[in-house]
Amino acid sequence: MRLTRAAYAACAAPLALAATQLSIPSPSSKTTVYPNFLGISFELSFVGNYFGNSTDAIPAPFLAYLSNLASASPSTPLRLRIGGNSMDDSTYVPSQTNPLLNFTNPQANANDQPVTFGPPLFELFSKVAGEVSGGAQYLIGLSLRYPNDTNMPVLAGAAQSGLGNYMDAFLLGNEPDLYTSHGQRPNLQNYTVNDYIGDYWVATENLENTPAGNILNNHNIAGPTICCDWDLDAVLTSGWQGNFSDDLKYITLQHYPQNNCFGSYQYQLNYYLNHTNVKTLASWQSQGIQAAAKPVVMSEFNSASCGGIPGISDTFGAAMWTADYALQMASVGYSAAYLHTREPGISYNLFEAPSSNASSGWTTMPPYYSLLLVSTALGLNGTGANGTLVQDLELGDASQAGYAVYNAVSRDVLSLVLFNYQNASAAQFALPQDVFPSGSENVTVKVLSAPTVTEGYKVSWGNETLYQVGDGKLVAAGSEGLQGGGELTVDCSGGGGCNVSVPGPGVAVVYPGEVLARPGGTGKSDAVSLRASAWAVVLGLGSAVLGMI
Ligand SMILES: *[C@@H]1O[C@H](CO)[C@@H](O)[C@H](O)[C@H]1NC(C)=O
Ligand SMILES: *[C@@H]1O[C@H](CO)[C@@H](O)[C@H](O)[C@H]1NC(C)=O
Ligand SMILES: *[C@@H]1O[C@H](CO)[C@@H](O)[C@H](O)[C@H]1NC(C)=O
Ligand SMILES: *[C@@H]1O[C@H](CO)[C@@H](O)[C@H](O)[C@H]1NC(C)=O
Ligand SMILES: *[C@@H]1O[C@H](CO)[C@@H](O)[C@H](O)[C@H]1NC(C)=O
Ligand SMILES: *[C@@H]1O[C@H](CO)[C@@H](O)[C@H](O)[C@H]1NC(C)=O
Ligand SMILES: *[C@@H]1O[C@H](CO)[C@@H](O)[C@H](O)[C@H]1NC(C)=O
Ligand SMILES: *[C@@H]1O[C@H](CO)[C@@H](O)[C@H](O)[C@H]1NC(C)=O
Ligand SMILES: *[C@@H]1O[C@H](CO)[C@@H](O)[C@H](O)[C@H]1NC(C)=O
Ligand SMILES: *[C@@H]1O[C@H](CO)[C@@H](O)[C@H](O)[C@H]1NC(C)=O
Ligand SMILES: *[C@@H]1O[C@H](CO)[C@@H](O)[C@H](O)[C@H]1NC(C)=O
Ligand SMILES: *[C@@H]1O[C@H](CO)[C@@H](O)[C@H](O)[C@H]1NC(C)=O
User: Fold this and answer.
1) What does the H/E/C string look like for 416-440?
2) Residue 136 CB: number of other CB atoms within 10 A?
3) Which InterPro entries does the entry mention (predicted)?
4) What is the mean pLDDT of the chain?
5) How far is the CA of 357 from the centre of ligand 1 (A)?
């Protein structure tokens, strides 16, 4: 039968009401992750725009942005990474006290601006880490462009002694699989993994003798930080992993789904609003990830390399994608991931700094909210302190995604994260009875939402937002004229579980118990807990609800 438009609409209507039935398996992931899973990567040349240009002029909004993340994951230090092409191309000058960063070749490619810097940079990084509750830890890039470079060990020593406990690991070499195509090994037709191993021997031996002593004694080197052309499994099994296993702390990768380096690109926004594509992307290097003997870290990623794509990277859709991809990485063996940010004006940035060091005037971009959501999902109220396991719930509909987050020790479910990529219509998710440990039958649903997937600013997280807020401090969404996705307690104590509604587009974090006041807030009495009726309908689910598993 050829359906008329009206007949089609009549058939389609009941389906729209069907809830996606969630089934919560035992976790199969073997990788424990912490609430600080999703960190921020900064391109070296532009740290002054965010951290400020001296310890006396750290922009308060930047500290507020970091503190929001820290309060969502109080038990683990924030992850910050300083690196990128520009770090590989820059020089440490022990005598340089001012400026913080000296741009030595302003004519250089915008994607790779070399600078010189001195000890004040590490004083600044330490001060910022100390200002954030729970602290921060840094990944610091070290160049491998000239393996026998005498500057590299001097920089490593300065970073190690300057950062102390705030030092996490050194990323030795940035994307060496691009050295050939970027012309960084002009004498070699093809820079190979064997060449790389030789270079690693030279560079690590030089790290035995730095102003801070033998850096290798700290066992905090990371690599191979490949992005594109090499196979991780081949690098690991080439002898590299075995040769340097005593030095290595992390196995690092950097990967973008596409690039915008040459003025054209492959995928439109729809690509990012599709969970199937997220899974495919996260399966990159899966064999190597299995072969890794150290925690695997995505030390740089974002929606598109070379600055992102205006109209895609700066949308709410990209924020949803970032959260989905981060949780997917957590479920397939990554231990951490760092979302990259660059100079003001770049479309994938988390926040836009004003052109001067004013204490206000910052603009929050959608991807920032993904970090808040992921740290909350992985550790709300300190519950993730002992680590969590993340599991894809395999909903089987690319316009939706679901994850369960478990306590890694007890395997109790700590939260569910539910994605609805649809641009206009809410989705119902049916929670089975007893998802969470007994005694916590009521659940709270905290929603990240925006009016449309293309929205750039009007984003709310629970009942709060950073829309039109210049100082990085969350305010009530209502006061900025936003509806707010909400943060509501739902009675899930009925025999058949309950339904949770997630607006389209939107992402919900569902956690046991009543609405929590924000850390630093005025306490639980502020929170409003509603009966289920308005938001979710308690159903005798059983076989009555159409499953979509
Ligand atoms: C801006 O930076 C200058 C120079 O670093 C400093 O003197 C001034 O106090 C800063 N202003 C603010 C508002 O931070
Ligand atoms: C900054 O770099 C430029 C170009 O290399 C150089 O001429 C200048 O002396 C440097 N300034 C400082 C303060 O190091
Ligand atoms: C590295 O530099 C030192 C000092 O110049 C030199 O003795 C050594 O042979 C060089 N090593 C390599 C592998 O080029
Ligand atoms: C270069 O070497 C890599 C392995 O290191 C290999 O995968 C690639 O095919 C080689 N390319 C050429 C053009 O020989
Ligand atoms: C490096 O790894 C290769 C391959 O596993 C091995 O043959 C070689 O002995 C190792 N070299 C050192 C110095 O450990
Ligand atoms: C730091 O200096 C750079 C270069 O002069 C400038 O663009 C940036 O706005 C400064 N950062 C702050 C926070 O003022
Ligand atoms: C973490 O583990 C310790 C020791 O087993 C336990 O006492 C504590 O309650 C756990 N904390 C959380 C948040 O699970
Ligand atoms: C999601 O992407 C896959 C593969 O790219 C495609 O086959 C599928 O139709 C897409 N689904 C939706 C809902 O866009
Ligand atoms: C989402 O919905 C808005 C408002 O209806 C519309 O303008 C926009 O084109 C839609 N975007 C996509 C990617 O479907
Ligand atoms: C669930 O919420 C309802 C309504 O707020 C409340 O009466 C009930 O005591 C709560 N149940 C639990 C186990 O907290
Ligand atoms: C969030 O906003 C909704 C709608 O305005 C309201 O019903 C609810 O009580 C608020 N929740 C909190 C935690 O403030
Ligand atoms: C949050 O944590 C505090 C301290 O551990 C605890 O007293 C409170 O019951 C927790 N709230 C929820 C909703 O789990």
Assistant:
1) EEEEECCCCCCEEEEECCCCCCCCC
2) 24
3) GH, GH79_Enzymes, GlcAase_C
4) 89
5) 6
Local confidence band at 483 (pLDDT 50, 70, 90 cut-offs):
confident
Ligand 6 pocket, residue 113 CB under 6 Å: no
pLDDT per residue as tens digits for the range 364-414: 999 999 999 999 999 888 889 899 999 999 999 999 999 999 999 999 999
Considering every ligand atom, which ligand is closest to the CA of 90?
A: 2
Task: Note the pTM of the prediction, 2 decimals.
Answer: 0.91
Give the residue whose CA is nearest to atom 9 of ligand 3.
148
459-465 contacts, C-beta under 8 A, 24 or more apart: 459/316, 459/319, 459/364, 459/366, 459/369, 460/484, 460/485, 461/369, 461/372, 461/373, 461/485, 462/486, 462/487, 463/487, 464/518
Domains along the chain?
Answer: 18-27+387-534 (2.60.40.1180), 38-382 (3.20.20.80)
Question: Separation of 381 CA from ligand 12 center, angstroms?
Answer: 6
Q: Quick one: which of 62, 70, 214 has its CA closest to 128?
A: 62
For residue 527, which atom of ligand 11 is closest to its CA?
13
Name the nearest CA neighbour of 399 among 377, 429, 356: 429
Tell whether ligand 6 has an atom less than 6 A from the beta carbon of residue 356.
Answer: yes
Q: What is the pLDDT of residue 112?
A: 86
Ligand approaching nearest to the C-alpha of 535: 11
Give the gyration radius of the chain's Cα atoms. Answer: 24
Among residues 282, 297, 257, 238, the alpha carbon closest in space to that of 392 is found at: 282
91 pocket-lining for ligand 2 (C-beta < 6 Å): no
Residue of the CA atom closest to atom 8 of ligand 3 = 148
Ligand 7 neighbours (beta carbon < 6 A): 382-383, 385-386, 407
